[in-house]
Specification:
Length: 154
């Protein structure tokens, strides 16, 4: 696979107003799509890595946002997928946290640097901005969201 042609944020991994009931459905949907377009070689491996991380510490961070992430050799190329759900969903069975904006980060096991930590840090700063969040919730097309997310430095 030609890794050079894959960018970390891709319009192919932006999904708007999807109907999901829970965290498992969202994660499953994203890893399946990431495998389909060649970012991931084994969706089950990434799904397991993301779920393991969620069990350690749930990744809902407030403001209707969750940033699940997983690190595994099944990730061929680092990526950040974005899902906006049609309605808020309860992120964990035990928690009260409701989310609508989900950023799933897939990182190769042997990745250099701390891409996911850097992105989470930059994204978290942006998400404190009410206007930035409002745009993520209201933009009607993938291209607009893609441009907005591409403005985040990683």
């Amino acid at each position: 696979m030609d890794n050079v042609s894959k960018s970390v944020i891709s319009e192919e991994l932006i999904f708007l107003d999807e109907n999901f009931k829970n965290q498992d459905e969202v994660i499953d949907f994203i890893v399946e799509n990431a495998e389909k377009i060649g970012y991931v070689t084994d969706k089950k491996s990434l799904y397991a890595a993301v779920k393991k991380r969620e069990q350690e510490v749930p990744t809902a961070i407030g403001y209707s946002i969750a940033i699940p992430h997983g690190k595994t050799e099944a990730v061929e190329h680092p990526f950040i997928a974005f899902v906006r759900t049609a309605n808020e969903i309860k992120w964990t069975e035990q928690g009260e946290e409701l989310v609508r904006l989900i950023f799933l980060i897939g990182v190769p096991e042997k990745s250099e640097g701390k891409l996911h930590l850097k992105f989470i840090s930059q994204l978290s700063k942006k998400l404190l901005d009410d206007e930035f969040r409002a745009e993520l919730l209201s933009k009607e097309n993938k291209n607009g969201i893609f441009e907005q997310l591409s403005s985040i430095e990683i």
